[in-house]
Amino acid sequence: xxxxxxxxxxxxxxxxxxxxxxxxxxxxxxxxxxxxxxxxxxxxxxxxxxxxxxxxxxxxxxxxxxxxxxxxxxxxxxxxxxxxxxxxxxxxxxxxxxxxxxxxxxxxxxxxxxxxxxxxxxxxxxxxxxxxxxxxxxxxxxxxxxxxxxxxxxxxxxxxxxxxxxxxxxxxxxxxxxxxxxxxxxxxxxxxxxxxxxxxxxxxxxxxxxxxxxxxxxxxxxxxxxxxxxxxxxxxxxxxxxxxxxxxxxxxxxxxxxxxxxxxxxxxxxxxxxxxxxxxxxxxxxxxxxxxxxxxxxxxxxxxxxxxxxxxxxxxxxxxxxxxxxxxxxxxxxxxxxxxxxxxxxxxxxxxxxxxxxxxxxxxxxxxxxxxxxxxxxxxxxxxxxxxxxxxxxxxxxxxxxxxxxxxxxxxxxxxxxxxxxxxxxxxxxxxxxxxxxxxxxxxxxxxxxxxxxxxxxxxxxxxxxxxxxxxxxxxxxxxxxxxxxxxxxxxxxxxxxxxxxxxxxxxxxxxxxxxxxxxxxxxxxxxxxxxxxxxxxxxxxxxxxxxxxxxxxxxxxxxxxxxxxxxxxxxxxxxxxxxxxxxxxxxxxxxxxxxxxxxxxxxxxxxxxxxxxxxxxxxxxx
Length: 623
What we know:
This protein is 32% helix and 21% strand. Residues 1-40 and 563-623 have low confidence and may be disordered. Strands 6-3-7-2-8-9-10 form a 7-stranded parallel sheet, sandwiched between helices. The protein is α/β, with parallel strands linked by helices and 623 residues long. The chain is built from 19 helices and 26 strands. The protein starts with a strand and ends in a 5-residue tail after the last strand. It has 2 domains: 2-23 and 339-618, Rossmann fold, CATH 3.40.50.880; 37-241, Rossmann fold. Residues 49-319 form the CTP synthase N-terminal domain. It is an enzyme of class 6 (ligase).
C-alpha cells in the first residue's frame, strides 16, 4: 500500500516517475533483443545443466550475488536459466520471520514468501520464480511425512538417507524444468544456491543429497562453485588462505569437489595467493576466481567474465555457446562505469522500524537505486528509526530526536515502508503529518499507507481516536481493519499474497494516466489489513478519492487526493534490473529526478507532480 503527498517548492528539484512496469526497461540491456549467441542455443537440445553454489567460512559472503551473476552471464550467452535457493531452516517459508533474522520477506507472483535472494535472481535474470524455487528443510520434511502418512513408502522405515535425500533430488529435478521466462520454454541451466556454510549441521542432508546427485546427473551436467572468504587481518595486512583451505577440505570430506573456487576479499587478491589456493586446494589456477569488494553489484558479472568463466563453463558443461562477451555483458559494463561517474545526488529518508539492518528493506533500496541510476543520479538513502521521531525520545534523548528530525527535513522525499506491530507507529504518524502539511514528497507502502489513512482521519476528519484494529481492536473509529479472509489463529500464509488485479474506477485518475490509461494493473501484494470500506464515503467527502479497487469492488487499493498530488497504493509492484518504467514528464515542470520504490519485489511508481497536470509518456532508453 502506498500514499504520496504533494510537492510545492521541491517540484523544481525532485519529480517522481510512474509507468507501465510490464513494458518497462530499467537497466541498459533488455532481453527483448536477440543476440547472435542466443540464436546459437535456441535450437540446442541438451540435458539440464546444474550449477551448485556452496559457501564456506562465514555466512552472508555473497553467494546470492555470485549465483545471480553466473545466471546473468549464462543468460547473456542465449541460455534459458532458472534458479533455486535452499534454506536449511525448519520453517516452511520465510513469511513469519522477523526482518532481523534473514532480511526482508520477498513475495512472488504465486504468493510465495521467500528469501530475499530470490529477489536478486528475479532482478538479475528477469524471470518469474515460484514458491517451490525456495526449498527449506521444513518443506522437505513436511513433504516426506505426508507421503509416509499416505502410505507411499509401503511400511519402510523412513530415514534421512535415502528418503530425505531422494526428496531433495526429486524436488530439484522437477522444479528445474518449470518455465520462468515469458516464452514459457523449459530452462536449460539451473543455478542452485545452498544457504549457510559447509559444516552446518542443518545443511548435511542437502550436501549428502548433492553428493549422490552429481553421479545421477553425470559429470558434464553438474558442477560445484564454492564461495569462500580470504580475510586480510589489519595486524599483518597479509591475505590468508587457510580458512579457504579448511573449507574446501571439509567440502571434499563430505563428497563434493569444487570445480571453481570463488574467493571473496576486501581488496584484489595477489597472484601469489591465487597460486597458493590452487596448489593446496587441488585445482588449476584458472579455477580460482577473485571477487573483491566493488562499488556496486553491477560489476560482479563483469569481474566473473573477465576471468574467463564463460570459456570455463563452455568446456566444463559442454555448452554450445560462444565464449566471447555478448552485447548484453558489454552493456552491463557500460552501466557499471556510468554508475561510478554519477555526481548528482538524490536523498530519500526511509522512516522504518527495522533500520538497523539494510537487508530489511533490500528491494526498496534496489528499486530506488535503479531508478536514480536511470536518470543519472546517485541515491542517498537515509535510514531513520521511527522511534527517534516520537515525543518520548525527545524527553529521553533530545540529541537523537533532533538529529532524526534534521535528517527528515533535509531529505528530498520521504518513504514509510511496510511493517507489523505498534512499536514506532507514532513516529511514522509524525513523519506522515509533517510531510502532508509541508507538502513534502511522500510514499507509504503497506503499513505506511494504512498509517497515512489514520493520520488523515485524525487531522482532516477530526477523528482523534482513529486507528487500525491491529493496534487498537476497541477503537471507536477503525479506519483500517483486518480482512475477512484473515485467520487470527495462524500467522503463516494468511495474508493477501501474490499477484492481484487492481481495477481503476474512473478515467479521471492521475495514476491511470501514468499507466497509459490502462483499465487495470496486476501487481504483487502482501498485507493483512485494509481501509475500512464502510468509511470510504467519509474520506471522499473530504477529497480523498478511492480510484482503484480489487476485481470485486470491495477492497480499496488506490487513493488520490482531489486536485492535489496524493496517491495511495495497496500494491506490490514488480521491477527488474533489466527493465525500467517509461518516463512521464509534466509539461510545466522540468523534471530532474524520477524514482520508483520497491517492497518485496514490489515496485511502487512515483508519479509526476506539477501545477498544471499535463503528462506525456516518453519511453526512453537511458544508455
